[in-house]
Amino acid sequence: MKLKVALDWTPNVIHAGMYLAQIDNLWGGSDLEVEYISVEIDNYQKKTTQRLAEGEVHIALSPSEHLLDFRLLQKEQHPIKAIATVMQQETSAFVTLPDSGITRPAQLDGKTYGGYKTQLEKELLTNLIQQDGGQGDIDLVTPPRLEVFEAFLQQQFDTAWVFVPWEGVIAERRGKKLNAFHLHDYQIPYGYSPILMVREDVLEAEKESFQAFLTAVGKGYQQAANNPEETAQKLVENVNHPNFEDIDFITQAMQVIAPSFLNEQQQWGTMKPERWSAYVQWLSDHKLLNRYDNSPLSAEQITTRSLYTNKLLND
User: Fold this and answer.
1) Are 253 and 235 in contact (CB under 8 A)?
2) CA angle at residue 308 from 306 to 310, to 5 degrees?
3) At 239, is the pLDDT very low, low, confident or very high (cuts 50, 70, 90)?
4) Which of 79, 125, 196, 264 could form a disulfide with 200 if both were Cys (CB 3.0 to 4.6 A apart)?
5) Residues 86-101 pLDDT 10s
6) Distance between CA atoms of 94 and 182, rounded to whole angstroms?
């Protein structure tokens, strides 16, 4: 089977295990052929979950809120389910430049956020500011998604939401070590990001192919976690993309991200019910769960276990 996998961003170290599966041919005896599709295909005009829902791809990477959007909020869409998480630890953060004078979230009141036109980003930032004692008064601007970080570095706005092991390392190598505000440090239980998602109807039909994919990719992430420097070398030598041209940068980024791939039991991909439940409850408490017709949902109306499965990892 040829699997099409929509990446959540341009190719980077978050995808290391998937690329290693391809580079080292970890598919084993399966007949899998895998194609990774970058958001660059249309300059990120269409979200990966949309491509999944419309049947363009078999697997999509995206944050948890995108799954909730398409599973709960979209009318007449095929149900989408998470089958693995790429990372166990939260590695995203809202950031400010080191010379901005903004060293804590409360100081973002009255400032400008450069966003991605995506679910919950402003709500999460507003709550982050409020948790630090501010009002949550933030203005939103939306550059093209793939241009957000460069616009932030050029001081076109005051804060952005980034993956620290990628954009954080880019900034540091340019002499700008970012001030990073992680949601978990302010009692905000963010979900898994990114997660691998499939349509439930396709999952039933292609279960063995998805299992073979996850088995191979899991081996890739084990290698990436245990040997970040060797992984960096393989990525630079084998992935034909401008993001993987600088071995020193990729090595540093791999060293930063490697501890986030595996859980305490040294497993890749597994998701915990309590983390999903805490995230959904937080959204419910803040009235951020609504159906497609804007009617409210409570956490009690959502069967959290229906949102994800670990079975393809464990069978």
Assistant:
1) no
2) 125
3) very high
4) 79
5) 999 999 999 999 999 9
6) 7
pLDDT in tens, 241-260: 999 999 999 999 999 999 99
pLDDT band, very low/low/confident/very high, at 294 (cuts 50, 70, 90): confident
**What is the rounded average pLDDT of the residues 199-222?**
95
Q: What is the pLDDT of residues 6-54, one digit of tens each?
A: 999 999 999 999 999 999 999 988 889 999 999 999 999 999 999 999 9
Helix residue ranges, H only, the chain: 16-23, 48-53, 64-68, 121-131, 148-153, 169-173, 200-205, 207-226, 228-238, 247-257, 273-285, 311-314
CB 21 within 8 A of CB 30: no
For residue 245, the SS3 value is: coil
Q: Where are the alpha helices (DSSP H) in 15-91?
A: 16-23, 48-53, 64-68
Q: Are strands 33-37 and 111-114 parallel, antiparallel or unpaired?
A: unpaired
- Bridge-based pairing of strands 33-37 and 2-6 is parallel
**Which residue shows structure tokens 């290693």?**
20
Sequence-distant (6+) residues with CB within 8 A of 304 are: 273, 276, 277, 280
Radius of gyration for the alpha carbons in the chain, expressed in angstroms and rounded: 19
Paired residues of 92 in beta bridges: 163
pTM value? Answer: 0.94
